[in-house]
Amino acid sequence: MARNELKSRTPIIGMFMVFLAMFIVALTAYQHAGWLSIIGYGIAAVIAVFGFAFTFRDLS
Predict the structure, then answer these.
(1) What is the 3-state secondary structure (H, E, C) of the chain?
(2) Angle CA 42–43–45, to nearest 5
(3) What CA–CA distance (Å, rounded) separates 59 from 5?
(4) Where do the structural domains in the chain lie, given as residue ranges?
(5) Transmembrane region positions (predicted)?
(6) Rounded to the nearest 10 degrees, what angle do helices 10-31 and 37-55 cross at?
(7) CA–CA separation, 29 vs 13, rounded Å?
(8) For residue 28, how many other CB atoms are within 10 A of its CB?
(9) How many Å is the Cα radius of gyration of the chain?
(10) Which residues contact residue 22 at a Cβ distance below 8 angstroms, ignoring those fewer than 6 apart?
(11) Cβ contact 40:2 at 8 Å
(12) CB atoms within 10 A of CB 9
């Protein structure tokens, strides 16, 4: 039973990760950090990809 414990929460966690990625992009764009913005955008892209995968993982 412990194996399927987070199965129902996986889409919620995925959407939270997608919204977190959008927040990171908005914060990075607001800061105008120049070349350091690339790091923020990269982190946001990785989080968004994993969040998208978690959100739609259970669809056939």
Answers:
(1) CHHHCCCCCHHHHHHHHHHHHHHHHHHHHHHCCHHHHHHHHHHHHHHHHHHHHHHCCCCC
(2) 65
(3) 18
(4) 10-55
(5) 12-30, 36-56
(6) 160
(7) 24
(8) 19
(9) 14
(10) 44, 48
(11) no
(12) 11
As a whole number of angstroms, the distance between CA 53 and CA 50 comes to: 5
pTM of the model: 0.79
What's the angle, vertex CA 41, arms to CA 40 and CA 45, rounded to 5? 120
Distance CA 21, CA 8 (A): 22
Q: Which two tokens stand for residue 38?
A: 């690339």
